[in-house]
Each structure stands twice: as C-alpha cells, then as structure tokens.
Amino acid sequence: MYNPEELFIASLSTCHMLWYLHLCSEAGVIVIDYIDNATGTMQETKDGGGYFTEVILYPLVVVSDISMIEKAKQLHQNANKLCYIANSCNFPIHHKADCKAENT
Length: 104
Description:
Shape: elongated
Distance between the termini: 37 Å
CATH superfamily: K homology (KH) domain
Structural class: alpha/beta
Order of helices and strands: HEEEEHEE
C-alpha cells in the first residue's frame, strides 16, 4: 500500500520524467533506461500535521551513445521548468541527475 506522501513524490518524479523523455525525443537523445529514486523531506507540526520542505529527484539516465550525455544532462533543467506539478509546489525540488552511455 502506498501513502499520499509517497504518491505525491512519485507524481513529481513521473511528471519530470515524462517532460524529460519528451524533450529528449525532440532533441534526438535516445534514452535506453531511466530510473529515479526520489526522496522527500517533511516537517511535522505540533498538531501532528506537516508539510514537505524539499524533494530531491535522482534520475539515472542511460543513453544509447556517449555523444548524447551532455545534451541529456542539460535537458533536466528544461524538464524542471515545464513540470506543472513542480511549478505548483511552494518548496524546492532539486535534481541530482546522472547520465551514462549504454556500453560504458
């Protein structure tokens, strides 16, 4: 079973991924694999409620050719600007992306 907090982080991660993959497709970057182990930090309030203070996305992208790595890294910034869920948040969403080529 998932809780709402996990689903919220998953929504941020998925929105970023979908925009990212779209931008890669437009730029000719061939993505072979994409994994994200996103995390979130929450602050609990005195009454038992709480709120997120940050989310960190850790996308690991595998591209088909080493020549695509730099462009693949750059596209995360554009994806972040376009993600409507990230744009709706009142806390920072950080990206610690990594990229490698398929046969390296």
